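hiii so my PI (J.) wants the whole complex modelled not just the main chain, which honestly fair. so below is everything: four entries, each one labled with what it is. i double checked the lines twice but i was tired so who knows lol
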Amino acid sequence: MRWRELGEEECSVARTVSVIGDRWTLLVLRECFLRTRRFEAFQERLGITRPVLADRLQKLVEAGVLERIPYQERPVRHEYRLTQRGLDLHPVMMAIVHWGDVHMAKDGHRPVLHRHRACGHQFDPVMVCSECAAPLQARDVTVEPGGRRGDAR
Amino acid sequence: MRWRELGEEECSVARTVSVIGDRWTLLVLRECFLRTRRFEAFQERLGITRPVLADRLQKLVEAGVLERIPYQERPVRHEYRLTQRGLDLHPVMMAIVHWGDVHMAKDGHRPVLHRHRACGHQFDPVMVCSECAAPLQARDVTVEPGGRRGDAR
DNA sequence: TCCGTTGAGTTTCTTTTCTGAACTGACTTT
DNA sequence: AAAGTCAGTTCAGAAAAGAAACTCAACGGA
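here's the output for the full assembly
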């Protein structure tokens, strides 16, 4: 299987991975969620090489995750911003951060904490069932052949 | 920055990415959650090349995400199973699948559907705040310098 | 006993991708 | 006029991935 074919796979993981399943891409997205928007800023904050950064930003734009918007004329300069599609990756990032906090933190020290503006508290992200609101456990989830969401089954 | 250094970064995203931030690794994990356990099965289902599969499985074992357990003697054969640490990646996988379902599905057709054993319903995964149980929006989350979870701030 | 098969990898060689460092181009500032 | 800023591009060498064949230990049958 080549990477070009991945997006064609009949699997949502494969399709998503074809967009974000790359080390640098995930770190670029982290920066996006931290409000980084400009080429130089990404480069400096990540230490990524310029050619790879240019490539990843372009791919994210093609995938509709980022948009390239001019922020000045003379010379025209662009910045990269998350689209709604990109913002929808927030749960993925939160899940990744949380796993890192729990399993990779050095002696319980978390690099960053999250605060929920809506309630004002420091919080952890929790994945719950849309139907019963209970936290999901891997063992409680079964997989069935696909269809349209909402189809009676 | 080299990949070896990534795990040392003071960032939970970087540390997590150093473990799972690889295209094949994420697909291997998808298979693990679908109960695939043996080398040949991974290879066949994913179409991954053998050297890369051997490498990824070994790295996941080193990272404590999978364990290599003998399932027969003479000849000794091993299978790979998710550890608790690996099971804890479930929210990451669910978030990835869900994004793919919403944004990469071809005309609304989802490759698989999920059912929650606890409540019996088909569901979508939702990321909520551990404190107020409201669904999280990217814009409602602010980031603060780290500390130990629970520290008063 | 020899023969073919299975499972889990290795080896080898080629192709692709990444890194590092320098270079370009359009402007602005001093 | 020289130097600086931002957003890239170019290019050579290094690292990683892909394809295909090979290894090894043991089993199952004829």
